[in-house]
């Protein structure tokens, strides 16, 4: 379905396969030699033992841009269930228990039920997709996610014609998530997409980043990534998927409806009521890095603009 | 409190006011394990703004504290604290113009006019300017009673600053609420005192 031609990736840019396959041993050796910080490996959530990231293939349409720093992507997060400060999730998300993990699928679909994470992941092969991530707060990053198309997952449940929307829920576990004490948002965290958005080839079910399993603070063990929307729509730590007829209520829209809409497409022409969305700041820059202009649909206009042809994007922010 | 003790007290207060700035510099130059994190400009803006706001609130505690404890020498610190607050907030604004917007004057002016939280912040800072300029002993003598009236502007500036902090709400949404509480308390104490005085002296 992707219309645009794949960018030519120079052969010299492709990691030689033997090194790619050997990367864990190389990293471990580097770690042992004291050449690498051990931060990332400490926070790696365990995926089911039968699930391996070794066969991850690079996605041909990945961004050609430099990845953000691993430490920045795993250290600067909005995950209010673990605190509202940007460094809180990295500091406190270690209490999240990601194994065992199950996902309840319900609503307008033929194959509903409760599935273990292993059931969910086993049939899929994984890709590394380098996506832009744009937070509504006007900062952004370039993240090499590991995952598989959401469409491939949802098709397994055979949604009926009544399924116009898909709703997702994050884990709600006060014993593991200290931030749930504060009614900042309506808990559990919930988000939603139209069925067309969910079935778009860009919508990703992510289980890893930078070649390893998702750290807890990034939404372990399974999260959504919709790169053309503001980051809060890419819901983390999913435990429930519901197919429904009516537009789902979403946590941020319920909290501040005039600021956060259902669609929340990245749009430099539609400002947030309190700040401009015309530019953004890439994280991991220096004090002197300039802001960069925000792209329509976060640069994914070719892939998703058709979804909104008849939609007033100012009214449907 | 004898006069000879005020000087060392001022030095201590001065060092305390400089500490956040020194700490910020250490982080900016990545001394040791210190750094500014993934979003350094935002971090600098936040630290300078908060330091300025914190010191501003401390200046507002001096009068209630003096009335409660009778320690009149506290007033000797107020000018220095006020100027430090102004310095931090000016740097905060300067950072905003330079590092955040890179002198993009158009975007800057749009921001100041069209974003309410920036409008109130900018207004608060502009209102601080006459206070900073008239902070000298000579100015105080020249203006006399008008000086007291002028410096009551701080009762407008402080709430504007809190509103600015509350409205930008990008970081922790709870932190600004604490400040709202503190300012309410500090200004509330003054209102209570004023009511009490009027009652005692009889309505004029």
What does this structure look like?
- The complex is a heterodimer of chains A (317) and B (204).
- Helix content of chain A is 17%, strand content 21%.
- With 317 residues, chain A is of the alpha+beta class.
- Chain A has one domain: Oxidoreductase, molybdopterin-binding domain (Sulfite Oxidase, Chain A, domain 2), CATH 3.90.420.
- In chain A, the strands form two sheets. In chain A, strands 1, 4, 5, 8, 9, 10, 12 and 13 form an eight-stranded mixed sheet that branches. Chain A has a five-stranded mixed sheet with strand order 3-2-11-6-7.
- Chain A is globular, with a radius of gyration of 19 Å.
- Chain B is an all-alpha fold.
- Chain B has nine helices and no strands.
- Chains A and B meet through loops of A and helix 2 and helix 4 of B.
Give a short overview.
The complex is a heterodimer of chains A (317) and B (204). Chain A has helices spanning 17-21, 23-32, 39-42, 70-73, 88-92, 117-121, 150-156, 195-199, 251-255, 301-304, and strands at 57-58, 102-107, 113-116, 127-134, 139-149, 165-170, 190-194, 204-209, 212-213, 223-225, 238-244, 279-282, 292-293.
